[in-house]
């Protein structure tokens, strides 16, 4: 568990305190993929860099497992940092070193001198990220996606328990982004490490995160499972992020056409409820008619979901809604 207890952070610039993060508490559970989403300047980089104490908090305590990071002297902190790998938006590779040497770098830094051991571990890591053929190349000879794979291999070299991803796919095109996110998902599952990522794209969160916190001007304004936050966003900032992640026609589920008569409702189907024809059965049995105003069927990580906006007409709408709720469908009445 990564635990933030009443943590706050401000920067001192020219004798003035600039607040970056208001006091917050947050727990990140072992083995999960945790996303932190926010606009530019919201405090995402500050928050993620507090985990390995690249930034020191101005108040509060940060624990990883039983270790209080904030009270460690420098040598002990260096040892703890080996439990944490990090990848970056611009990859931060050493341009004058080959792919293999970039990946070997943290092993050497940790004191490994046995060339055969280093060679074997680098080979293993490059195979894991699909770059075995490229060991002797230099970063300038690689695509963006390949560079990030080198970054991932390097971050995993010392078998960390936590991987921090600082806008890891922001410099990549959509297809390369998808491949890198798939790789991170596979690593999370196979190596059982905790991933904390920061992003300004809800789609990244939707694809790979289990839980998410939404940061707005230094405050966590919303947090929860990605399914809950994505399907029922509460804060205006969260709603904006969700709408940005949806194509135009699906975004209309959030704001359906108002000129249609009847009771307007948004129905959310998750997991198993997407698999049975509950809607048609309930409507047939209750004799209620519906007009379909907008809809979307997609996945949140592994969870299939559907969200439909309907206008209902008929005498038995309350009975129909009770039957839908009974079947596990979430219903929101729209104005
Ligand atoms: N080293 C620093 N010195 C002074 N102020 C800083 C420093 N780093 C960040 N800040 C300020 O702290 C606030 C949060 O910045 P931070 O970089 O954490 O946000 P962010 O959400 O990561 O933004 P971006 O997506 O643009 O990187 C901003 O107001 C920023 O100007």
TrEMBL record:
Keywords: Amino-acid transport, ATP-binding, Cell membrane, Membrane, Nucleotide-binding, Translocase, Transport. It is found in: Cell inner membrane. The keyword 4Fe-4S does not apply. It is a peripheral membrane protein. The keyword ATP-binding applies. It holds the Pfam family ABC_tran. One of its GO terms (molecular function) is ATP binding. Residues 2-242 form the ABC transporter domain. InterPro entries: AAA+_ATPase, ABC_transporter-like_ATP-bd, ABC_transporter-like_CS, ACT-like_dom_sf, MetN_ABC, MetN_ABC_transporter-like, NIL_domain, P-loop_NTPase. Its main location: membrane. This is Methionine ABC transporter ATP-binding protein. It comes from Rhodanobacter lycopersici.
